[in-house]
Amino acid sequence: MPAGLNEFYGSESQLRMYHARYVHFLNGAPQNFPVLDLGCGSGVFMELAREHKRAVRGVEQVSEAAARARAKGLDVAQDDALRFLDGHPNAFSFIYCSHLIEHFAYGDACRLLELCQRALVSGGRLHVNTPNPASLEVIAENFWLDPTHVRPYPLPLLAQMMQHAGFNLIASGYDSTPALPRRTLARRLWLRLALGRHYGHENTFIVGEKT
Question: Which of 8, 42, 159, 160 is deepest in the core (most CB within 10 A)?
Fold first, then answer.
């Protein structure tokens, strides 16, 4: 995450609530290989995985974020995600890729998924979170607040890309950021009524398994 953009992503406590929703997907992944968090930021998901008795590694390109994660005693490589994955075939049981794929053009995003599949052991899982472009609020403004975003990935396209990379899809859906300010509740309810399915869920998630 680029320095200075934390206000667009929420506090660490909000991030912890958000990532905690997905820890249960670790339960179906092999136990004897580590978990990898790609674009791990300050290491919030890594902490959650460690609390669930899983060995965990992280990759983060931004030096400030990598330093914050290392200060928590986490094993974080400061590296490019594609380069790191290319050097670690059959090494991980679970790869968590949260709000990273939208920083890649389509060709590089396909390469990212293919390298994740290669880096996982048999039965390993890949979990991808990304902004939901089906929400007008996301695609009209929120997505572009981060100048490093390249393009959005709608869920149907992401599912197709995952399957093409060699994953069996086991879960997918939409969610919203937890602990949103109560003062915005009336506005959110009005927009939900006015825009229907084109407003609401801010994020997409999808989980695939390597067979």
Answer: 42
How many residues does the structure list for the chain? 211
User: How far is residue 130's CA from residue 161's CA, in Å, rounded to a whole number?
Assistant: 14
What pTM, to 2 d.p., does this model score? Answer: 0.87
Q: Which of 77, 89, 88, 65 is nearest to 9 (CA)?
A: 65
The angle that helices 44-51 and 12-20 make with each other, rounded to 10 degrees, is 50
Residue extents of the structural domains in the chain: 6-210
CB atoms within 10 A of CB 35: 26
* Superfamily of domain covering 6-210: Vaccinia Virus protein VP39 (3.40.50.150)
CA 21 to chain centre: 12
